[in-house]
Design brief:
Helix content: 10-25%
Distance between the termini: 118 Å
Number of helices: 4
Shape: globular
Length: 304
């Protein structure tokens, strides 16, 4: 067979290339039961069950309060939702002076041995606390001591009575406070000048001088006076251990501290004390915190 020079050269080149090529080496490993580890970026994050969210305590208020310059027992009581006379009683602040001092630590919880609030006559305006001063929160005259009533001589106890008396008296369990039991109503009729907001802690209701201001719900009057700066002549009603309501800028107050009132009862007359116009400033406070009254009051188109 005859080959051309070109053909010989091509065959030579192919033979040379074929001699240099190596077969690919494939390494086979035995299968392993161990999973192949993933990189750090590919590894799945462990699933962690969310922690149970603890509910906010029903009573958020602190156990104590440090008196600051300008404070009064009235303002402290309103801020934390207490009768100021209770705060005085818990801290041994006695009539007639009811003094507090700047820097004084006031207990805001009733001690186990605390008794009922002392009975006092209506309060007068109190000076604000100043540094290094003794502050009189209220000035009243102590009421005369009540004459004890004659008690009947107890009859001799029978054996059954003695046996029963030896048994420990079980105190009935206290029912949880049902705040929904409070029946709210509008404290006055008039146009709403300002609604509840971050800067306004209640509702401002327009009206005329002398217009009746009504108790929004039944309760006990725990403040009646003009000792809170910016509120003018003011009434505060305690409805239960949770709710207070406040009525400010009155021209006249017709109820006294310690008086029980019912829903719709006249407690004051509208005015403009410590205000630029005739209005009622109305607040509802839950454990001292101001809340939107319109969420509790019944719908009333005449108020808007």
């Amino acid at each position: 067979m005859k080959y051309s020079i070109g053909s010989v050269l091509i065959l030579a080149l192919l033979a040379g290339c074929t001699g240099n090529l190596k077969a690919p080496v494939i390494e086979r490993t035995q299968s392993s039961t161990k999973p192949v580890a993933k990189s750090a970026t590919q590894a799945r994050k462990p699933v962690i069950a969310p922690k149970a969210v603890s509910e906010k305590p029903a009573d958020w208020r602190p156990d104590s309060y440090i008196v600051k310059k300008g404070d009064t027992l009235y303002a402290i009581g309103l801020e934390y939702g207490f009768d100021y006379k209770d705060i005085a009683n818990w801290n041994g602040i006695t009539p007639p002076a009811y003094t507090i001092r700047v820097g004084q630590a006031l207990k805001l919880k009733a001690p186990a041995s605390a008794g009922s609030s002392p009975v006092v006559s209506p309060a007068v305006a109190a000076p604000a606390a100043t540094e290094g001063s003794v502050v009189s929160a209220i000035k009243t005259e102590a009421p005369p001591q009540a004459k004890p009533l004659d008690e009947p001589t107890p009859a001799a106890a029978s054996p059954e009575t003695k046996a029963d008396a030896a048994k420990p008296v079980e105190k009935p369990a206290e029912k949880p406070l049902d705040d929904s039991a409070v029946e709210w109503g509008w404290p006055a009729v008039g146009k709403i000048l300002a609604k509840f907001s971050d800067s306004n802690k209640g509702l401002d209701i327009a009206g005329s001088i002398g217009q009746p201001v009504l108790a929004a719900a039944s309760g006990k009057v725990v403040y009646s006076g003009n000792g809170l700066r910016g509120y003018g002549k003011m009434v505060i009603i305690k409805h239960n251990t949770t709710y207070l309501s406040a009525y400010a800028h009155n021209s006249q107050i017709v109820v006294k501290e310690g008086q029980d009132v019912v829903k719709g009862q006249k407690i004051a007359e509208m005015g403009n004390s410590d205000a630029d116009s005739i209005m009622l400033h109305f607040e509802i406070r839950k454990l001292g915190q101001p809340i939107d009254p319109e969420k509790f009051l019944p719908a009333n188109a005449t108020m808007n």
